Amino acid sequence: MSTADLANLSDKLMLTTVVMYIVAMVAYAADLGFGRRRAEAAAPAEAEPAKVLVGAAGAEAVADDAAVTAEPGTAEPGAEEPGRVRADWARLAILLNVLGWGAHLGVLVTRGLAANRWPWGNMYEFLTAIAFAAVTAFLVVLVRYRARFLGAFVMIAAAVALGVANIWLYDSVGPVTAALNSYWIALHVTAAIIATGAFTVAGAATLLYLVKDRAQTRGGAAAGGVLSRLPSTDALDRLSMRVTTFAFPIWTAAIIMGAIWADQAWGRYWGWDPKEIWSFITWIIYAAYLHARATAGWKGRKAAILSLVAFAALMFNFFGVNYMFSGLHSYA
Fold this sequence. Notes:
Elements: H1 3-34, H2 42-46, H3 57-69, H4 80-115, H5 123-145, H6 151-167, H7 188-217, H8 233-266, H9 274-295, H10 301-324
Helix pairs in contact: 1-4, 1-6, 3-4, 4-5, 5-6, 5-7, 7-8, 7-10, 8-9, 9-10
């Protein structure tokens, strides 16, 4: 295929990806909205400590499967069909999510082949890659912790990111600046993308924690409401910490590799460039979050607020620095 054909295919796959993510988001939301209350399955979940992280997510999945496969006459009238609906929404959401992920991967691969370089040389490509990393991180969490409840929130974040990339940040396939023609882009930028995607999933879990904690402080989540179908606040808190713990070393490696690349490209490891400063500020806040949890026993609302401050710094490092300041690292 020619360069123009590959670029055109990348654009078409982008549209396919956005549509699949939006439909998957609706299916995840329906699964969350019509699901059984998590409290109903709390006891089975407590019997298996390794699965406490997701509350009753795993127990709910077992309950759903049991409802689908139950023999006639073994359940109360009308009990089988709601379980079947819940399971169908979940399967549809996951199927569309995986298909959308595959199309998203195709966007990056065809874009890279068309440009004959790593496909994150401008804001459009960088944001597209970060959205891909966030969806990938969610799928890993989905498999590892059965955290299906995050699906709707990650899907809407990915769809919005891709919408912003296409409407405001789109760039035609073309060469990059001389400084980016280096093998370090495959190491430094890739690490930053992976860490940002994982931090996004941790941020979604943190937001859900704060929303549910606030509702419980004001009198508790209404029985049968959406919040009652989320895992416990402790489970959400631990999920956020574990994903952050995974992402933090990768972000650290990205900063270190960026300094080495800067020395090769510009003759210095550190030059107080706005991107360097805010990357380090982000690192400090996430380090403070993990340190406070490990040494001072922070958890819950205090830790969640600090985590969101770190995520806000991360987002400002990506959007604010690129558009509000001029520097050697600007993608804008």
